[in-house]
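Pipeline run #58 for the internal structure catalog. This entry was flagged by the ingest filter as a single-chain record with no existing model, so it goes straight to prediction. Upstream metadata was stripped on purpose; only the residue string is passed forward. Reviewer on rotation: M.T. Logging verbosity set to normal.
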Amino acid sequence: MKISSKSTPIINCPQCGEYVEWTVSNRFRPFCSERCKMLDLGQWASEGYRIPSNSKIEEEPQE
């Protein structure tokens, strides 16, 4: 994160890495555009973001 000369925080878009001002007027924040916002939403919907696990889930015996 950078700070511009106007004290407005500048962050990187989590999707594409482009610099974005963190202001109320940026309705897509923290993303740079609606496209990046929707790409991120698609990753969540398709379970692209996951926390890896080493433990195996034991299945309950079915009767």
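catalog note: The helical segments are 34-45.
catalog note: The domain at 2-45 is CATH 3.30.50.10 (Erythroid Transcription Factor GATA-1; Chain A).
status: ready for reviewer M.T.
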